[in-house]
Structure formats: C-alpha cells, structure tokens
Amino acid sequence: MSAIIIDGKKVAEAVKSGLRERIRLLAEKKIIPNLTVILVGEDPASRVYVSMKEKACDQLGLLSETVQLPDSVTQEALLNAIQELNRDASVHGILVQMPLPGHIDSRRVIETIDPKKDVDGFHPVNVGKLVAGTPSFVPCTPAGILELLTHYGYVPDGKHVVIVGRSNIVGKPLANLLIQKSATGNATVTVCHTHTKDLAVYTRQADILVAAAGRPKTITGEMVREGVVVIDVGMNRVDDPSAKRGYRLAGDVDFEPVSRKAAAITPVPGGVGPMTIVMLMKNTVQAAENLSKI
After folding, report:
1. In degrees rounded to 5, what are phi and psi of residue 71?
2. Catalytic: 97?
3. Which of 53, 117, 261, 282 is catalytic?
4. Which residues are registered as beta bridge partners of 250?
5. What's the rounded Cα separation, in Å, for the pair 48 and 187?
C-alpha cells in the first residue's frame, strides 16, 4: 500500500483563497485585521514561530505587530501589556507566545486576554463554548486537522478516532470537536496518554489516528492497522549530523513503516504545521469581523 500524502501546504493555500474575499470586504470598510503577538524573552524557537506568523500576515495583507518583552518582565507588567491591547480598538487578535519564563503564571496570562480577541482559543470562556458545541474561536491546530480531513474526504462521522496526547492545545479540544453533532464530528473518540497501558491495543483500532505526544517515533509500524489515516502533529528536533543545521524535524510517527500501511498520512514538516498558521489567520479575520460587527 502506498499512502496518500496529506499536503498541508496545499490545503492552507485553499483556506487563504477563501480568506482573501473576507479581507477585501473588511478593507472596503477601512478595517485591516490586526494580530498582535507578545513575545517574552529570546527563545529561538519562539522567534521562528513569531516570524512565520508575521510572514503569513504579510502574505494576506493583515497587520502584524510584535510586543517584545525581556525574560525578566514581571507578571504584573505582562498582564498590564495585555490589558492595554484589550483596550486598543485597532487590535483584533492577541496572542502571547508560549512558553513563558518560569516566574510567569501562564494560566493568569491566558485568562487576562479578552475572549473576543483570544485568537488561540485558549481562554476559559472560549474553551467552555467549544465544549458546549457553540465555539467562538477554535484552537488553531485542531481546527487545521479537521480542515485537512475534510479537504481529503476523510470524514470523521462514524469513525473511531484515536488521539495520542491530551494537551489543552491539541488533544482535549480536538476530542471535543470530534464528538460534537456536526459535519466534522460524530466520531467515536479514544484519548490516550502517557499513563495509557498497552497503547498499541488502542492505536490498532483507529480508523483515524492523531499523534500529538511530542515524542519522536511514538507510533511505529506495528502499532497501526492497514488503511488507517494518520495525522502527525509532532514537531521534534532530532540530531542528524548529515543535515545542514545538525538536526532534522521529525514527527511523532515513524513515517516510513507507518506510511506503508496507512491509507493516508501527513508529512513532517508540511502537514499540520501550515494549517496551524493559516487557522490563526482565519481566527484573526473572524475576530475583526466580530469586533467590527460585520
């Protein structure tokens, strides 16, 4: 079996095409969606992520601003910076880049963001709406995964979806989306994690398998059945002396053996990653429409 490669770049471009008309309509009313990112410290990976978001905004004609704060910033100063952006009518989306320094309470930070500008979808108000089936902003990676599955015709309805990972960013919100009575839901969902015994017992049952454990080769060829659809959320740096940078990016799935059994699979990079970025753009446009009452 030769697996279909689920191309996140291709699907992201399709989403961008749909957004351009919405952005044009906003521009006619002199509104340019504004995504402001707060970046604390000099973490190289965080800088790369912020740069990717800035580039995506530029490509679509969105405003992108970055508030740079030092590692030593106090929690009070960070919360004040967020409140200032909450009050700024020209800012439609606020994102605080994670991780934050150890002395900062990430939960307090998320709760301080205005839910109407919470384009990450992590505020408790938005999480509650998602669980209730009336989401305002859907977290970007789960939203991107559903977009990939829908685009390629792998509808979750009636399928057994196994999610490996229970983070607030991917595993939990994705499980909640998939069990909703909706066009992209109606799945039977099993969530596995680090305390799951005999993980392979569950992964072999999956019609659709989502690997979001944050560890390379968590899913091996022996752990999947023939014909499974595999979504690999992992983005891990693996040492590779032959690579130009001394490392390569790898997912949570052992790609070669799994792809020989799968019906379809996402690559790393180029699968889920581009979708996460474009769904952030979509949420920012939605925030601008909502705040402008369009």
Report:
1. -55, -30
2. yes
3. 53
4. 236
5. 35
Question: How far is Cα 35 from Cα 49, in angstroms, rounded to an integer?
Answer: 14
83 catalytic residue (yes or no): no
Lookup result for tokens 């150890």:
102
Q: What mean pLDDT do residues 57-77 have?
A: 97
* Intra-chain end-to-end CA distance of the chain, in Å: 48
pLDDT score for 44: 85
Q: Which two tokens stand for residue 265?
A: 């699979």
CB-neighbour burial class of residue 195 (10 A; exposed 0-12, middle 13-18, buried 19+): exposed
Torsion of CA 14, 12, 177, 140, to 10 degrees: -140
- The whole-angstrom separation of Cα 100 and Cα 97 is 7
**Residue pLDDT, tens place only, 173-224:** 999 999 999 999 999 999 999 899 999 999 999 999 999 999 999 999 999 9
Written as six digits, the tokens of 218 are: 């968590």
Tokens 């749909």 belong to residue: 18
- Give the largest CA-CA distance in the chain: 57
Count of beta carbons in the 10 Å neighbourhood of residue 51: 11
Active site residue 180: no
Long-range contacts of 267-270 (CB under 8 A, 24+ apart): 267/5, 267/6, 267/7, 267/8, 267/232, 268/232, 268/234, 268/235, 269/235, 270/7, 270/8, 270/9
8 A C-beta contact, residue 65 and residue 88 = no
Which of 118, 120, 207, 232 is the catalytic position?
A: 120
Which residues are within 8 A (CB) of 63 and not within 5 positions of it... i.e. 6 or more apart? 32, 33, 34, 35, 57
